Amino acid sequence: MAEKVAKLGVSREKDFMYYVKDGSVWKVQRKQPGVPKGRPEKVADGGFEMDTNYIYFVDRDGDVARAKRAIGGQKRKKQGSHRRLANA
Predict the structure, then answer these.
(1) Which residues lie below 8 Å from residue 28, measured CB to CB, with a gap of 6+?
(2) What global pTM score does this model have?
(3) Which single residue of 22, 64, 78, 81 could bond 6 by disulfide (Cβ 3.0 to 4.6 Å)?
């Protein structure tokens, strides 16, 4: 489902959230009550171009991977038959 784009081997810390922006991996401290907002810090430069049709993330191995972006969201369940029974 996901394909690796760059093998970086980023080691993750527990209290940080990692994300990909402009082809680089960034980390920011997770929000905690009573703690001021942390400043983002650049961890690694991936050196790749990002395509808007894909969503990019840091996988378990610390590498950058991408998956096809969902378009249109999930289909909703039909509620027509349930409503007809309630009105009858």
Answers:
(1) 16, 17, 19, 38, 39, 40, 41
(2) 0.70
(3) 64
Q: pLDDT tens across 41-82, in order?
A: 999 988 888 888 999 999 999 899 999 988 877 777 777 655
Rounded to whole angstroms, the Cα distance separating 19 from 49 reads 15
For the chain, the domain total comes to 1
In one-letter notation, the amino acid at residue 54 is Y
Contacts of 51 (CB under 8 A, 6+ apart): 66
Structural domain containing residue 58: 3-87
How would DSSP label each residue in 24-61? EEEEEEPP-TTSPPPPPEEEEE---PPPTTEEEEE-TT
